[in-house]
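Changelog-adjacent note: as of this version, every example in the card shows the full chain rather than a window. The one below runs 587 residues end to end.
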Amino acid sequence: MTADLHGSGLDALSDVVSHTATQGVPTLYAPRAGAVTAGLLFRVGRADETLPTAGITHLVEHLTLHRLGVSDLHYNGATSMAYTQFHVTGDEDEVVEYLNSVCAALRDLPLDRLETEKEILRTEAAGRGGGPNSQLPLWRYGAQGYGLSSCNELGTWTLTADQVRQWAETRFTRDNAVLWITSDHAPDGLDLNLPAGTRISAPAPTSALPVTPACVRGDDGHVVFNAVVRRSTAAAVFADVLGRALYRDLRQEGGYSYAAEADYSPRDTDFATLTAYADALPQKQDAVVGGFVDTLARLRAGRIEQAELDSARAKALKAYDTPDHAAALLPSFALSLLLGHRLLTPEQSRAELHAVTVADLREVAREAWADGLLQVPGRDADWAGFTPAPQYSQVALTGTRHQSLADERVTLSIGTEGVSLLTPGGPVSVRYDACAAMAARPDGARTLTGHDGFSVPIEPTLFRGVTPERIAAVDAAVPAEAVVRLPARDPERIPQPSEPEPELESERARQRRGQDGTAGRGWTAALWLLGLLAVAWAMLGTAVTVDETGSAHTDGARIFLIWFLELPLLWNIRAMRQRRARARAGT
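Full-length structure tokens:
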């Protein structure tokens, strides 16, 4: 029973944090002056979902909070990769009322609101933007588990009331929860009557990187590095040392960056994600990349000064010097209890901080480098020891061949094992038995995304001979649980091939004969610049801007919906401009 907290490590905290069980929910509390704050955590997040059900945890969170309506009370909910939290600040009665309302809603979700909340989540996603770090999880983990934070919430199109209800009943249970409250007692009147269940362990990580350290190409203006390291006090201190080193090297001394920082975030029971970031103006990007890599290499080589450690340690120790430090530590205690990580008293934490040595930091630096994934603007970083992550599949699957009507060098292969897109750069393949999701449109369009994050779009209008029978063969081969039925598109959004103008045809013929050595570079640029527009068009069917999609997926994003979905549009634009130019010239 969850009510038995002995052996969880909480007994060691008894002098600092009080604990009990409220209707089976472990409850931690410690006093703090002022308003009461509480957080109810559940060990379920996006990493527990699949690509077809992505967004189901977020839906439960939205539905749960709907009945609270408009209120002056400061409350909210948040869905992360490994947990979901409902938090509130107010007086004791307000906190009790909020927590009771959350649990009542979880017991009986307002599923009559399901379609409305699904639309709200799609609207929220369209306006959220990606951020410079948004695609690294997909490169590292693929389109599953912790990599789903890079993917669209496809479940907001097709999830049913029964699916959402079952998710709440099995994941949002008293045995999968922890409550923390900044109070000197567990308030009277709490009604946390949730269904019984089991404590669900954090998902096991997957991998889409055959080799690390690795690098990927990203957007202009951003350099990002992340690594998975063992959770430890030394690793947390190292993150601060790295952030300070980047700030000093890239901003204070080099003047190249405005933001240069690092972060340490627990991922699961035993591991954390270390992330470092620096921005740059376009004309300073080379200097930022070089300085960023130099800083990482210096720390990896063990050139860490004692003064750097002392500064980071002093900052960490200050957290234990405040009068309400026990209450301030409640969220981290609750998360560690939820994930099954060890619990340290403030005295133990101070002792571990004092015990960290420069040698410990050097070991973390080497661990981070060995597992590193570096994203740099528009280029590779193999010169610095980072192997380019795969941008194409290792195998091209055989099947019936369907030539692209936009570029004769691109061919779609539909076979019995899966589908492949054969491009000048290499094949992109998705096996049916490794298909994470297939988005399906009524007009016959299909987009297959593999667990490794690669995607193949099938637009019948853009390939020769893709008949309804060929689409039916794909539908029959993909597992039913992987299929996501998307709504019909506006006919104007269905891509159509266009005839190139004669001079364009002549130019392409010359390129085929090898008289223009720049052709390959031009097609490569088109491939990367247009990739994510296809993602948005084929999978979401919602209007998104080039800036937003570029920010999320530019230059080799793992969801590889190839550029030619937009190619007919580009041909039309180019032809239109040429006709206008001739008209102005009187020709």
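Structural remarks: The two ends are 85 Å apart (CA to CA).
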